[in-house]
Amino acid sequence: QVQLVESGGGLVQPGDSLRLSCAASGFIFSIYTMAWYRQAPGKRRELVAAITSVASTNYADSVKGRFTISRDNAKNTVYLQMNSLKPEDTAVYYCNVKILGDYWGQGTQVTVSS
């Protein structure tokens, strides 16, 4: 079965960096677009970044120039490098793949606070 396991979240100060990882299993990782979403308290879940099977990427306007999504098909893992973090980046971050429907990981909390 499809499994997505996120890691790497934590509490950081504004301006700091974090790298999130999502380990995937149960499907042919290399052929699917992978994405990161986030959900802040009281807000809708929103797309942060996505990367296709050929490593084409797209980003939410709010994170362009600060976040970088990448993938390692040999490790079945997708990453989200987050630099220059802001308090408004505080959210639970979820890994996503669409295979005849959405699959989600359990999420990892990112808190940006001084």
In short:
This protein is an all-beta fold. It has no helices and eleven strands.
Tell me what the structure shows.
The chain has 114 residues and is mostly beta strands. 0% of the residues lie in helices and 52% in strands. The protein is built from no helices and eleven strands. It has strands at residues 3-7, 10-12, 18-25, 34-39, 46-51, 57-59, 67-72, 77-82, 91-98, 102-104, 108-112. Strands 2, 4, 5, 6, 9, 10 and 11 form a seven-stranded mixed sheet that branches. β9 (91-98) and β10 form a beta hairpin. It is globular, with a radius of gyration of 13 Å. The model has no long low-confidence stretch (mean pLDDT 97).
Index terms:
globular, 114 residues, 11 strands, single chain, seven-stranded mixed beta sheet, four-stranded antiparallel beta sheet, mainly beta
Q: Please give the share of residues in helix.
A: under 10%
Shape: globular
Number of strands: 11
Arithmetic mean pLDDT: 97
The proportion of strand residues reads over 45%
Helix/strand/pairing category: mainly beta
Give the topology string: H per helix, E per strand. Answer: EEEEEEEEEEE
